[in-house]
Amino acid sequence: MSLTDGAGATIGAPRKTFLGHPRGLVVLFFTEMWERFSFYGMRAMLTIYLIQHFLFGPVEAQGIYAAYGALVYLLPVVGGLIADKYLGSRKAVIIGAVLLVAGHFTMAFEGSGGREFITVGGTEYAIEVDGRNTDRQLYAVTDSGRVPISVTPEGVTVVDAADTAAGSGALAATAAGFPAQTAADGYTTRTVRDPSGEMTLFLALSLIIVGVGFLKANISTVVGQLYEENDPRRDGGFTLFYVGINLGSVLATGLCSYLGYTYGWAYGFGLAGFGMLLGLATFLLGQSWLEGRGGPPHPEKLAGTKVLGIPLEATFWILGLIAVFPVWLLMQRHEIISTSLPWLAGIIFAAVVGYTVTQLKGAERNRMLVAQVLIFFSVLFWALFEQAGSSLTLFADQSTDMPGWFNAGYTQMFNPGIIVIFGPIFAALWVWLAKRKMEPSTPVKFSFGLVFVGIGFLVLAWASATQAGADFRVPLFFLFLTYFFHTLGELCLSPVGLSMITKLSVDRLVGMMMGVWFLSSSVAHIAAGVIAQATATDTVAGVVTNPQLALDTYGSIFGTIGWTGVGVGIVLLVLSPLLKKGMAGVR
Questions:
Q1: Are residues 266 and 340 in the same domain?
Q2: Where are the alpha helices (DSSP H) in 286-440?
Q3: Looking at the structure, do residues 201 and 118 belong to the same domain, yes or no?
């Protein structure tokens, strides 16, 4: 008689593999690919959507994005604990996926967005905008029709004002009553947003945040559970898993951005929701290939326990829905998140360190402490890297010379596209070096990541100072080069970081430590928001009013953070031998 695990796999039987890895990796690869398709498809449009559709200013939009990103990476701490103690990773992933489907489809209900009004000479005019890319044109709506205008630091000017003043053609009739020129102190603007559309936006973001909280840390935990301790394939497996993440991302940023910019935001967000639906279906249909990994820690307790007459598993479904409401409130007051989250994260991190020092001993304690030190350094990496969704996206829109068919959202394809190409190369490289006992230690890989992300910003700072054209726009190649260096840094740090958590953490705390790993990204998003807000310049109806100031500001900030990344990376490289010793034999 043969024994089987909870998924029906025979215990002790040879494990089926795919390309040398457990075949469960295939299920997780495609589940995460579609989940990241939805997540990054939405992210590619979010900041531009906030500015151009809802007409938030750059500072406000980047504050919302930072709060969203921070909560997306904070809640996996809670999701990891729930999975470790009650649900198990697989059930937590399913709850998260359902919430994500709901959130992404809700994003498709965009409402009427925002409207901006300009008051000139005591008369208020509505502002309309044609186009979404670099050729966006502002119009003031008068009783006679629409007047094309430009807003600069000097003030408001009617386009082709000389012809209008001479009384030529339809433009003169259209411009009747609207001054040809108005000084900077001679006009005011105000913005009105659709209340129901704005509330729906924050509801959608909240569903996504809670969904990621249940899913993100736990699907990575299942990947780690597919491999035995010190399995040399583990780093390669996580890197291939990371390729799945980025394959979904490159598909999403291209397709969702195209639909969103070309046909309407709702189409782009709707496609992201469909991608998440495919991810949920993949995970549900592929359960048997996971061989029982990621199951509940106490199946009998989960099945037999009730809370107020409600089965314990159903209780967590209900709590997941309830959690959306406080997150919805917080997203509308994102300043609270930016102020309080660093303190909360500090308390959580201190508690984890305290537990490690007081409750663990010997090699277990040393390994956990090394993991926590590396997590600390990763905060700076993510603060710089996560400019991709905010300041780098706006740099693409405001200060990059792009072909007419190209939009700012497409630049989000650079990073995942490079990973799809170089991810397998890095996976093979680590294995090749390990066989020859030449593989860099995990701390050294982290230091490489910081140096590369710093170099990426230094490239863009140099290009901003020396390569811009008369329109104060930098050739697209330099933005691509920045993403290339950032991606090399990411391949050194992020997939290796996920693997590091599963290798250095005590078995019973892997889910929690995976959550703490994502917590570092949460804190980093707040820091990233502060950096991104420092790059912001004034806009009217989503159009930047001073392109030269915008470019100079980007160049200055990017230079500062670039040198910071390189410097901190060198410091970590110097500390690497000490940290390697603390890993106590773990590769």
A1: yes
A2: 299-304, 312-331, 334-359, 362-385, 391-399, 414-435
A3: no
Structure tokens at 192: 């009105």
Query: What's the token pair of residue 54?
Result: 């809802």
Distances (CA, A) of 38 to 41, 76, 248, 262, 490: 5, 18, 8, 18, 20
d(CA 197, CA 311): 36
pLDDT at 17: 65
Domain count, the chain: 2
Separation of first and last alpha carbons in the chain: 39
- Rg from Cα positions in the chain: 25
Measured CA to CA, the distance from residue 100 to residue 280 in angstroms comes to 9
Closest C-alpha to 294, from 226, 230, 231: 226
Please give the Cα distance from 6 to 126 (Å, whole number): 63
Give how far Cα 520 sits from Cα of 221, 347, 501, 525, 540, Å: 17, 13, 13, 9, 35
What pTM does this model have? 0.84
Number of C-beta neighbours around residue 407 at 10 A: 22
3-state secondary structure of 340: helix
- Distance in angstroms (rounded) separating the CA atoms of residues 291 and 356: 31
User: Among all chains, which residue has been given the structure tokens 């151009």?
Assistant: 52
Residues 413/253, Cβ–Cβ less than 8 Å = yes
Q: Using the 8-state DSSP alphabet, how is residue 188 labeled?
A: E
Residues 499 and 529 in one domain: yes
The answer on 472 and 379 residing in a single domain is yes
Q: How far apart are CA 407 and CA 44, in angstroms?
A: 10
Per-residue exposure over 378-396, b if at least 16 CB sit within 10 Å of its own CB, e if not: bbbbbbbbbbbbbbbbbbb
**Are residues 403 and 541 located together in one domain of the fold?**
yes
Could you tell me the CA-to-CA distances from 334 to 44, 403, 413, 419 in Å, in that order? 20, 35, 28, 32
Query: What pLDDT shows up at residue 172?
Result: 53
What pLDDT sits at residue 204? Answer: 96
Give the residue numbers spanning the domain of 287.
17-113+194-228+244-582
Instruction: Kindly tell me the burial class for residue 398, based on how many C-beta atoms sit within 10 Å of its own C-beta (0-12, 13-18, 19 or more).
Output: buried
Q: Are residues 316 and 456 in the same domain?
A: yes
In this structure, what are the phi and psi dihedrals at residue 555, rounded to the nearest 5 degrees?
-60, -40
DSSP-assigned letters across all residues of 477-539: HHHHHHHHHHHHHHHHHHHHHHHHHHHHS-GGGHHHHHHHHHHHHHHHHHHHHHHHHHT---E
pLDDT tens digits for 148-191? 888 888 888 888 744 444 444 345 544 557 888 888 888 888 99
φ, ψ for residue 123 (rounded to 5)?
Answer: -110, 135
Dihedral in degrees, nearest 10, Cα atoms 223, 225, 231, 234: 10
Percent above pLDDT 90 for the chain: 32
Which parts of the chain have pLDDT scores under 70? 1-19, 132-135, 161-176, 229, 511, 587
The per-residue pLDDT for 15 is 61
Alpha carbons 532 and 560: distance in angstroms, whole number: 13
